[in-house]
Amino acid sequence: MVSYPETHDVDEGDISLGNDAASIAHDFKEKLFFELAKFPGVATTNDCSLALSFVIRDRLLHRWVEAALFEPLMRTLLEHDPFFVLADFRAYVDCQDTVSRAWATPDTWTRSAVRNVAGMGTFSSDRSIREYSEGIWKAPAVPIVKPNEHS
Question: Which of 51, 61, 135, 140 could form a disulfide with 31 if both were Cys (CB 3.0 to 4.6 A apart)?
Fold first, then answer.
């Protein structure tokens, strides 16, 4: 079930811009229903994310920056999205929540960081360069003699 923002005390600047919570919630519901043809009771999290992106595009970006600047990006995300940015957005938010909780607990964060570094051998640049050198460039390795090994 979708929850909508509650109205709250707003200052004069918010009202003059129409950016009070009730006005934004109204626009959100309109985008959800009229642009996405979704009823609030059956809208998925992705539907709500998409409707919210329309609200952000129409209310905020168009007020603060030249609208045409971000239009190709918005069109790609909303109409094509070849990299599934919006489709994967919920998973990204969930993962970020997990990371934020870990960061808030120094022991958990440190343990995770140490395990991450310890397990990155497969992704080392030395291994990558060696594989490119041998497999793609067909260049033989050049031995490096350390200065104390001359004798």
Answer: 51
Per-residue buried b or exposed e for 27-58, using 16+ beta carbons within 10 Å of the residue's own CB: bbbebbeeeeebebeebeeebbebbebbbebe
The answer to whether residues 31 and 54 touch, using CB atoms and an 8 Å cutoff, is: yes
CA dihedral 76, 80, 83, 87 (to 10 degrees): 100
**Segments in 19-66 forming alpha helices (H):** 21-30, 45-55, 62-64
C-alpha distance from residue 90 to each of 1, 31, 52, 58, 66 (Å): 15, 19, 13, 22, 28
**What pLDDT, in 10s, does the model give residues 25-76?**
888 888 888 888 888 788 888 888 888 888 877 776 666 666 677 778 777 8
Q: Which residue has the tokens 């609030």?
A: 40
Q: What is the tens place of the pLDDT at every residue in 116-146? A: 888 887 777 888 888 888 999 999 888 888 8
